[in-house]
Amino acid sequence: MMATAASGRSVVLGVDSVDLLLMQRWCAQGLLPFFDSMLESGSLARLSTVSRVLQGAVWPSLLSGRSPGQHGIYFLTQLTNRTYNLDPVQADHSNLDPYYLHLDANGVRCAIVDVPDDMPRKRFKGFQIVDWLTEFKYWRFAMQAGAGKRGARLEMFCKTGGYGPTTQTLDGHRVLRHRLERGIALKGALTQELLARTDLDHLFVVFGESHKAGHLLWQYMDPAHPDHVVAEPYLRDALLGIYQALDRQLAELAASLRPDDNLLIFSDHGMQPNYRGDHFIVPMLQRLGLCEPEQVPVLESLSRTTARPNGAAGPATSSTAAGRLGRAKSLIKRLAPEFATTFLRHRFGVPSRIDWNRTRVFQLPTDRNSYLRVNVRGREPNGIVARGKEYDDVLRLLEAELRALVNVETGLPAVEEVFKVHELFPGPRVDDLPDLAVLWNAGAPINSVQSPSLGRMDVRANEDRPGNHRAEGFVLARGPAIRPNVAKLHADVLQVPATFLALHGVAIPSHFEMGPMYELLADEFKQSEGRAPAGSTPPDQAHLPARPVPAHQATPDPSA
């Protein structure tokens, strides 16, 4: 029996890292008419997300319906378990089936385009594009056209995509805006092709341009940012320009929908100024005696060599090391393409020259939250901390010290929350994850911190990206299967894949951790949702209930 949507197709347009608060502000100013119309006439679900704890876990969790303890992904570069090696993470790390295979197996014809952290699936019979216009590459460009007849032409079309690395200069950012707007137009044209087809029931197309724009163009629009640059309107309004390009493109796509289609606009998380205190982690660990005192980040150790007259490298004097480090970082930030700074940040996030026999805690790579790993006996090659009481005592000490840190410039806590990751996300891949995650208070820059036990530490932040993620996503929806005028719904990103299945009457598999957003579905549709068609998806949990949003993932409602 073929599963079909209760009311036409489900068309999901992802807008990666579009911030709800920023969008609402610009809608109120009349600058984003399509988004404004969706807010006025559609329904809104605010989404909490696992990215509040582990920022790189949101897309693997959405694809699989499972939390990080099940898929083991939390960042682009991760510590390979049972080693001290940092390695790039690819989409096959989780080895879990994505939600759309359950749709596909039940006769729902799908098109999946540029969903981050995805990869080609041999059993998938639909249309799929992987890593064409995406912010990060978890795989490589690949396309399969399924049963479609336009495969060869679309493949040629797709290979014209890509917006490449970014030089961190004014000219580099002008080029970036142009490339991102071109990417939006390309993705929109491809989506129009897919919408014109009659052989598709579920489309999920992700626009990634707002992600890169939010990271790299924030400082031009934000006068309060320490890196604010006064520039001409083309750069000053660059982030707004990307949002407006998306607004226009989505309006054109929405105009192509059929009356019985269900439209969902999805954002995984938002954006805000990049204020964090990751640079205090190593000094804090040193003062607590949790790591070998002489450990030095690799970038700093490189700065301690200076060219001799004969070209050989020799040690620099201690008085020049800090200056050389600052100049090196500044030069990289200004001139190096983004891929180079990203590589350095990820590759050298774990301090070098560590005496593992005297190190109980070390830092993992990160670009928002801070991640800490305990040097556990039997898990790490040279682990010295025993599981059980000793491990728990180390985490309690770290949590207490982090919560005690105060931002000297504001008098407010420097840390918003501390998460014991293994308690929050148990599962077979839990040892792939950090032991502790630190969410910094992003209300202001963090250049000086102090606490009763640690005293004062002054380390000026030197971030290479002015914008960073705010852990709240959203779904804007309208259509025959959508309950109208829903405005106060708070849901979880793990409910999103279950909702996609529910829209097509497909049973929710038992391994999904959360049920659909029932409050978003029209009453008449919900009444028939449980009649799952026959197929390979086990119907043992077709009525998996939605549970309350976990407290560790919930974000405050600014409008409350």
What class would the helix/strand composition place it in?
alpha+beta
Number of helices: 19
Helical residue percent band = 25-40%
Strand order of the largest sheet: 7-6-5-8-1-9-21-2-22
Q: Give the overall shape, derived from the CA principal axes.
A: globular
State which percent range the strand residues make up: 15-25%
- Number of β-strand runs: 22
- How far is the N terminus from the C terminus? 46 Å
State Rg: 24 Å
Could you provide a short overview of the structure?
The protein is of the alpha+beta class and 560 residues long. It contains 19 helices and 22 strands.
Structure characterization notes:
- The relative contact order is 0.19.
- By secondary structure, the chain is an alpha+beta fold.
- The N terminus is likely disordered.
- Helices cover 32% and strands 17% of the residues.
- The radius of gyration is 24 Å and the shape is globular.
